[in-house]
From TrEMBL:
<protein>
    <submittedName>
        <fullName>Carboxy terminal-processing peptidase</fullName>
    </submittedName>
</protein>
<dbReference type="InterPro" id="IPR005151">
    <property type="entry name" value="Tail-specific_protease"/>
</dbReference>
<feature type="region of interest" description="Disordered">
    <location>
        <begin position="180"/>
        <end position="199"/>
    </location>
</feature>
<keyword id="KW-0645">Protease</keyword>
<dbReference type="InterPro" id="IPR040573">
    <property type="entry name" value="TSP_N"/>
</dbReference>
<feature type="domain" description="PDZ">
    <location>
        <begin position="255"/>
        <end position="325"/>
    </location>
</feature>
<dbReference type="Pfam" id="PF17804">
    <property type="entry name" value="TSP_NTD"/>
</dbReference>
<dbReference type="InterPro" id="IPR029045">
    <property type="entry name" value="ClpP/crotonase-like_dom_sf"/>
</dbReference>
<keyword id="KW-0720">Serine protease</keyword>
<dbReference type="InterPro" id="IPR020992">
    <property type="entry name" value="Tail_Prtase_C"/>
</dbReference>
<dbReference type="InterPro" id="IPR001478">
    <property type="entry name" value="PDZ"/>
</dbReference>
<keyword id="KW-0378">Hydrolase</keyword>
<dbReference type="Pfam" id="PF00595">
    <property type="entry name" value="PDZ"/>
</dbReference>
<dbReference type="InterPro" id="IPR004447">
    <property type="entry name" value="Peptidase_S41A"/>
</dbReference>
<dbReference type="InterPro" id="IPR036034">
    <property type="entry name" value="PDZ_sf"/>
</dbReference>
<dbReference type="Pfam" id="PF11818">
    <property type="entry name" value="DUF3340"/>
</dbReference>
<dbReference type="Pfam" id="PF03572">
    <property type="entry name" value="Peptidase_S41"/>
</dbReference>
Amino acid sequence: MLFSRFRIGLYAAVVAAVFVLASYKLYRGHDAIVPQKEEVLIKAMLQGLSAAHYQPEQIDDNFSRRVFDLYLKRIDYAKKFLLQSDVAQLRKYQTDIDDQVRRGSHEFVDLASQLTKQRSKDVQALYRDLLSKPMDFTAEESFQTDPDKAQFPADAAAQREEWRKYVKYQTLIRLSEIQEEQTKRDPKKAATPALSATEMEAEARKRVLKNFDEQFNDLLQNDDNDRLALWANTIANTYDPHTEYFAPRDKESFDIEMTGRFEGIGATLQQKDGQIKVADIVPGSASYRQGQLKVGDIIQRVAQGPAEPISIEGMRLDKAITYIRGPKGTEVRLTVKKADGSMQVIPIVRDVVILEEKFAQSATIDNGGKKVGYIHLPAFYADFNDNGGRSSADDVKKELEKLKQENVQGVILDLRNNGGGSLSDAVDMVGLFIDNGPVVQVRSPQGAAQVMNDRDPRVQYGGPLVVLVNKYSASASEILAAAVQDYKRGVVMGSTSTYGKGTVQRIFNLDDALPAEFNAIKPFGSLKLTTQKFYRINGGSTQFKGVTPDILLPGADSYLDQGEKDTDYPLKWDEISPARYRAWNQPPSIDKLRTASAARVAASPSFKTVQDIVARMRKRKDDTMVSLNLAKFRAEQEQAKAESKRYEESQKTASALNIAPLPADLRAVQSDTVKQNRVRRLTKNLVKDINLREAVAVVNDQLNSGVTKR
């Protein structure tokens, strides 16, 4: 994602005014009766999209078809619930959705909700019946695993047959797992005798039933708010994949991702067996300091201070969390079941929780006596609501300063799996590596592109630089990688291309935009909409195509169709005039570095194994029919296991990186073993990272060619 730091100004005020005007039009008749929440939300949202989206749609039959297709995919992507007759009923509204949103009606959504609710109940009875009987895994039959190649069932009989194969496939997976468990079982240590073939098959069905029941428990808890959020978000997504509606709790989750902080108790929760369990305690949090809540505890009831507790047993996790989180300084009382079966009421005063794992970290790599600095940046985070909050650009600047104190001779900035974030932080971060000049161009639908510049002539770090990316590096990561390429400031390394998100979003709080007359049906949530596209300083867009690295590395993600171009309704690639900029005066010799790297990769057994596995994954991805014969399935599993083992063995033979945490970081947490483990965990996971090892080799090539730090 990419967001600009935004405060209410003229532009926002204009959009807010449009929302307000739209809202007043929503009153019906002479008595000014307030309409339903859905009508207010959809009309206000469409007014905002029409006024402020980068590429607004006409609300016409074409819009209606797009919404229809996407909503159908959202409510039954795998084509497991609706029958062809159901789809035919819904298709009557295919070109009427635009008219429905204008008049504030929702016949299509109502019918879709009614049909999916009934089919969900039908299917639940169906899978329970199928799982109540033994299955024959010697028959020669297969199951289609790709929903895109499947059809909606013609009738109830066809649906039963489809679910019979699907349930059998899921049971086959569990049966194979149980057989694997039995082969590893030590009879001398086992407390119970080995399972017979009949018992293993029954246990497999039992596990599948439990899993399905948990899924359907969540599904059947969907309420009107969930339905409205899905409908609003579907409409928003027809404009582009990054224009979204955020229900209030979704906006809270988004803020946590952007800032790395929230207000609550500081416990990571998971849902298992219909119960809410504590999976982890965040170091330094309110729960950590209070000390009574432990990993493994089951939270059964939640009370706000002295109020009557509410049971959360069987409740969907996202809904349970809304009762547990809360403002700093407020008390929550958790009734928990301990591992020994005892019950305890634990009072915790909520506080700000800092998620340190989401912030930049650094380490040093000993490269034959030469030190190379490594910085891991999981996101371009920024706290838009707090000028004193954490900033990724400021944090990377601090990490660079620490690395300079360690006398590193090269730096690797790891942006793998970094989905982006703050636009201003991306610009400021590029400025740490160049003198000054343009970093990115941003264009609104009207007018010339705005050039965003680094105006600081200081260079925080001027030595050899490698930027690691992969298919999941997006948005702000692509801005930084593209600027490094265009300035010839360093070397970008990674898989075939980055994600391909070249758009800027802004978030509008709908409650702020809608007048007080609607307070009774607030909160409405927020609208995140695409308002601009960004372009490289060479004029090309990163939208749709992404950034192609200077040096390509084999990667397990290279066979996946997971980029902007693979999403629904993405904006297309284009280009504008380049900005005026001056390339770095000590550019790396990309051609020589690429040739040397290619030779090392070709000679590496580890990379050769990765390439072989990717080729097989690509073939397996295209072959979506799976045998439901146990013997054949097990044989395929054994082959996959052998390939995985070969990969693991090749990784073990790769020489380990000599990577270590910074002494300054260890000193800062020397009295806290939990925080020490967090510091050390970064380096532990990188010791056998073959892509990082190759990045170190490329830094070394630059040093040997005479590129030194400035």
